[in-house]
């Protein structure tokens, strides 16, 4: 298992290189000189030339790429707009993004898994039909649009929660109040997807012969559902949660913009608007690394859920 984790961590190297190369290439397709755009209209050619020289915008493509990647890995990549090192800027915003993703995950798990289990146990009941109908809508509606609806309902029509901003750490009352709406908005797609996967996986597991045998031996239905069926249905559920959690980092870009949440996603949007190439490069690369690490964590959890799974 340890060897597998080391192997997966080593795969981060080609992933980072591949993502960074594609990202850097896309940035070069954007028309205009980043230095000229950053400095505005009332600027001298000398100032533009100085900024181009400082950030290496005059160098060939491959030299600019390796220079930016080296500076990112060594923590020396500087933001044009903020005038600070990219790693420091991202570090100040990363906590807010992690808080948002963590609370969204907790909400999704607490809502989706019980909903899916009950829907499977009460197949074709009113609860099953209504919950799966709502889940279908949840998958179809983008999270940012759900966020706008939440703002209108809970901040405008019923002004009980703040519509935007950061109120502090998650363990403070103000911080939690500011986090509720964006966390619920970000969790809607995961709730919908996970509840459907949970229901489907539970229905497949409940058809297995060993559950029929357990019932014939007089085992209580609650024990059959929770101890035997649910545990064996967890693998596809965990897979879906891991995929959705990784995708949350992408969805956070829109949610953070809607709720003015000071995370890495909103930082990336501001960096694109200001044509701050080093900050765009660093922000997206950090989100990509988090995506890979989340998928690695899911693979590790598999072994604890089902010891028969082994990685060689």
TrEMBL record:
Keywords: Cell membrane, Membrane, Transmembrane, Transmembrane helix, Transport. PANTHER family: DIPEPTIDE TRANSPORT SYSTEM PERMEASE PROTEIN DPPB-RELATED. It comes from the Bacteria. Its main location: membrane. It is a multi-pass membrane protein. It is found in: Cell membrane. Belongs to the binding-protein-dependent transport system permease family. GO terms for biological process: transmembrane transport. Signal peptide: none annotated. This is Peptide/nickel transport system permease protein. GO terms for cellular component: plasma membrane. It holds the Pfam family BPD_transp_1. Residues 94-302 form the ABC transmembrane type-1 domain. It comes from Halanaerobium kushneri. The chain crosses the membrane at residues 9-30, 100-121, 133-158, 170-192, 284-305. PROSITE patterns: ABC_TM1.
């Amino acid at each position: 298992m340890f060897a597998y984790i080391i192997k997966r961590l080593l795969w981060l190297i080609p992933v980072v290189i591949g993502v960074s190369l594609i990202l850097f290439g896309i940035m070069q397709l954007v028309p205009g000189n980043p230095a000229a755009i950053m400095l505005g209209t009332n600027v001298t050619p000398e100032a533009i030339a100085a900024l181009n020289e400082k950030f290496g915008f005059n160098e060939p493509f491959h030299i600019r790429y390796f220079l930016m990647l080296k500076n990112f890995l060594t923590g020396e990549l500087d933001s044009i707009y903020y005038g600070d090192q990219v790693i420091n800027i991202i570090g100040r915003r990363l906590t807010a993004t992690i808080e948002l993703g963590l609370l969204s995950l907790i909400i999704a798990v607490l809502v989706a898994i019980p909903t899916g289990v009950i829907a499977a146990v009460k197949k074709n009941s009113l609860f099953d039909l209504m919950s799966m109908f709502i889940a279908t809508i949840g998958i179809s509606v983008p999270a940012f649009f759900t966020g706008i609806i939440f703002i209108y309902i809970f901040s405008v029509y019923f002004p009980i929660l703040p519509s935007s901003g950061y109120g502090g750490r998650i363990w403070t009352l103000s911080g939690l109040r500011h986090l509720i709406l964006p966390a619920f908005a970000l969790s809607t797609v995961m709730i919908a997807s996970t509840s459907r996967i949970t229901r489907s996986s539970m229905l497949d597991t409940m058809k297995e012969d060993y559950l029929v045998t357990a019932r014939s031996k007089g085992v209580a239905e609650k024990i059959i559902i929770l101890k035997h069926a649910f545990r064996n249905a967890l693998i596809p559920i965990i897979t879906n949660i891991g995929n959705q959690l990784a995708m949350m980092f992408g969805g956070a870009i829109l949610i953070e913009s809607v709720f003015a949440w000071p995370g890495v996603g909103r930082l990336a949007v501001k960096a694109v608007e200001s044509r701050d190439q080093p900050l765009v490069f660093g922000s997206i690369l950090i989100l990509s690394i988090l995506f890979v690490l989340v998928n690695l964590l899911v693979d590790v959890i598999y072994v604890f859920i089902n010891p028969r799974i082994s990685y060689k």
